[in-house]
Specification:
The chain is of the alpha/beta class. It is built from 6 helices and 16 strands. It has a 7-stranded mixed β-sheet, with helices on both faces. A 5-stranded mixed β-sheet has the order 1-2-3-4-5, with no helix packed on it.
């Protein structure tokens, strides 16, 4: 996980979470925190900014995924943090992330992924040879940078041009501007099909599929409808013999057992593959845990 000076989950409850990113405390929605009450209500008044989704019924927007950040007034003595800058940085050594407030409530990093980045670095070093890695739905590049820092050659694919530019900026901040990374703005499923036609193959696949989304040319993505076909194509792209792989998911209908079954059915992994599955979570200082999705990882022995 991130060191406590870089990131901390302070409290959660009532469908929200209170987090500190570097020096800044932020209050954001969290569906996983809907069934409990916050334990430290007075602490929430220290938030520098609170993210609220638009209320379509109020005529603000029909897009429920967008919202606004409400920042504290400069004279509000209960909110002692300084005004938020346009961007700031945190790190999970050796990875550096530039953070920004976005209209979707994201900041440019998902802290629960830190354990996966650590695993990727160790797994690639353990492989004992340079690996060709395909990172799909790659966002701002945490997994890409972890792999590249360990010596892998990485193809980073995301459908949003601004997000790929953000990932490239993170790579520069992390001293990886000259690492062997190809930056691709493309729909993930379409890119994989094109790579198959080109006769390309990869040693490792990383996926973090959203529940739904859109490609750069308007292609729609629905995880229930589209993930099985994408996994099947990924199996062909690794010729059913991936050296390692990682898939993470934050969709309620896709738990560990459902994702494992999909991996085996697609041929990405065999039924006898040593697939490690775990729940991702964020942990408060008082040891409470906030569920943050699932992760499944697999790696072949270097001797196989």
């Amino acid at each position: 996980m991130f060191s406590i000076d870089q990131y901390e989950l302070l409290d959660f409850g009532g469908g929200r979470k209170l987090e500190r990113f570097g020096p800044h405390i932020l209050d954001r929605p969290s569906p996983a925190a809907g069934d409990v009450a916050p334990l430290l209500p007075s602490l929430w008044r220290r938030a520098t900014a609170r993210y609220e989704r638009f209320d379509a019924d109020a005529g603000q927007s029909a897009d429920s995924e967008r919202g606004a950040w409400l920042t504290a007034g400069k004279n509000d003595r209960d909110r002692s943090d300084p005004d938020l800058p346009a961007s700031w940085e945190i790190n999970h050594a050796p990875l550096v992330f530039e953070l920004r407030l976005t209209p979707f409530g994201h900041l440019g990093v998902f802290p629960e992924q830190a354990t996966n980045w650590d695993w990727l670095r160790h797994a690639i070093l353990k492989a004992g040879r340079p690996l060709e890695v395909l990172n799909l739905f790659a966002y701002t590049g945490g997994s890409t940078m972890a792999c590249a820092a360990a010596g892998a050659r990485v193809v980073h694919v995301d459908s949003a041009r601004n997000i790929v530019q953000w990932a490239r900026q993170n790579a520069r901040h992390s001293g990886l501007e000259d690492a062997p990374i190809r930056w691709i703005v493309e729909d993930a499923a379409l890119f994989v099909r094109r790579e198959l036609k080109r006769g390309r193959s990869y040693d490792a696949i990383i996926l973090d599929p959203p529940s739904y989304g859109h490609g750069p040319s308007g292609q729609s993505w629905r995880i229930d409808r589209d993930l099985p076909a994408l996994l099947s194509d990924c199996a062909d792209l690794t010729r059913g013999a991936s050296a390692l792989g990682l898939i993470t998911c934050h969709s309620a209908a896709w738990g560990k057992s459902e994702m494992r079954s999909a991996l085996i059915a697609s041929g990405v992994c065999s039924a006898s593959s040593p697939i490690h599955s775990e729940e991702l979570h964020l942990k408060c200082g008082d040891s409470r845990r906030l569920h943050s999705g699932v992760a499944l990882r697999w790696q072949k022995s270097p001797d196989n």
